[in-house]
Amino acid sequence: MSLLSLTSKLGSMSSILDMAEAVNYRFMVNFYGGGGNPLDMRFQSVSGISSTVEVDEVREGGENLYMHNLPTRVSHENLVLTRGMIIGCAMNKSGRDVLHSLKVKPSDIQVSPLDKNDMPTYGGWLFQNAWLVSWTIEDLSGEDNNLIINSMEFTYNRLKHVVT
């Protein structure tokens, strides 16, 4: 397909460029109900943006030749946020509250892709009623001169794709 026919189907050349900006790897993480510290918005990587419909197999009555898959519920992988360790940020305190005294305070977390000007390109993903279940520090080595990397893993009730 030529570029001309592609642009006539999609609109203008600027709309094609706008779509291309949505595939870069800048993103922002917002914690709702948690204070809004700018240090708690930047992460090296995000994983676990995944939902799966679980099914039950049911045999057809009479003739047992056929199986039917019926949806039962939606399950999610845990959301994993990874970054260099930051001393004195609010995430450290809320992590200690959960891991040391089991004070769980669920909140919503939104992951939003950013364009080249660090502006949201579209809504992103909203993880509802999320709370910390794991805090991991990468292996330490006396031979490397690297940052200490920590990963935070959150469970959540529902994943919504947010469109703005």
From TrEMBL:
Q: Name one Pfam family in it.
A: Phage_T4_gp19
Q: Which InterPro entries match?
A: CHP02241, Phage_T4_Gp19
> In Gene Ontology terms, what is one molecular function of this protein?
structural molecule activity
| Descriptive protein name | Phage tail protein
Upper classification of the organism: Bacteria, Pseudomonadati, Thermodesulfobacteriota, Desulfobacteria, Desulfobacterales
